[in-house]
User: Which sequence fits this backbone?
């Protein structure tokens, strides 16, 4: 009798376990589109590092492009590709577009924009365009440069971060404050460790004092930097856009 009861109990437990598994709905496929400058772009930005943190149900498209500002990305027709993707993406459960600019909007850059008027208006327009096509816009403040003066980081992009946050508030959309978080992380590292995030190591000093050609700078990222800041953006995204959290590994 006791053996029979034990078998019945085991069968009930297996049945309950199978039912629980059967009621777990699979995640519907979604698409995440990344828009920005070289600090997002494949090869020297964090975009691919962020894409690596998504589950297989996510189609992550990195459209970041070197040297682009909030003005030139649209003027060159690159934004049209994003709009086309949104219009053709009806089979996705949701489409998210992350937009980050600022580096090439600064004075002196080829595609500079006015910080007070043009830049925030451009960012707000990106958000409005995405929402008009049924997508979910997420604005991102610019990744910090890793330039130090002595022991202290020079956070030259903070004003563009603040303008991005104002644009997000104007459009009532989510914003990821990558500028503040990345600046804090880099400051905590100090100059020597922060240099290890670069696309290439600092060049050795030349015996004759001549300038050594190198890809090293304090803006672009190698694999270590891409992984660090990609994970940072992923954590912020999960916090600020809870619907996407289940799609992150």
Assistant:
């Amino acid at each position: 009798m006791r053996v029979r009861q034990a078998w019945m109990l085991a069968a009930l437990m297996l049945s309950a376990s199978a039912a629980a598994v059967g009621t777990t709905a699979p995640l519907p496929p979604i698409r995440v589109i990344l828009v920005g400058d070289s600090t997002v772009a494949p090869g020297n930005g964090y975009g691919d590092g962020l894409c690596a943190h998504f589950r297989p149900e996510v189609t992550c498209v990195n459209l970041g492009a070197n040297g682009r500002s909030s003005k030139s990305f649209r003027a060159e027709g690159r934004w049209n590709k994003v709009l086309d993707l949104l219009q053709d993406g009806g089979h996705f459960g949701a489409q998210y577009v992350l937009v980050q600019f600022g580096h090439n909007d600064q004075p002196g850059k080829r595609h500079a924009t006015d910080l007070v008027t043009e830049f925030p208006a451009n960012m707000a327009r990106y958000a409005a365009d995405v929402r008009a096509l049924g997508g979910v816009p997420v604005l991102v403040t610019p990744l910090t440069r890793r330039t130090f003066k002595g022991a202290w980081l020079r956070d030259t992009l903070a004003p563009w971060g603040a303008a991005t946050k104002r644009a997000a508030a104007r459009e009532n959309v989510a914003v990821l404050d990558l500028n503040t978080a990345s600046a804090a992380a880099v400051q905590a590292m100090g100059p020597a460790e922060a240099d290890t995030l670069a696309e290439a190591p600092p060049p050795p000093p030349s015996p004759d004092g001549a300038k050594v050609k190198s890809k090293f700078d304090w803006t672009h990222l190698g694999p270590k930097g891409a992984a660090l800041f990609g994970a940072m953006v992923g954590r912020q995204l999960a916090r600020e856009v809870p619907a996407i959290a289940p799609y992150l590994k």
About this structure: Strands lie at 30-36, 58-62, 95-100, 136-140, 148-149, 152-153, 174-176. The two ends are 47 Å apart (CA to CA). Confidence is low (pLDDT under 50) at residues 1-23. The CA atoms of residues 9 and 15 lie 10 Å apart.
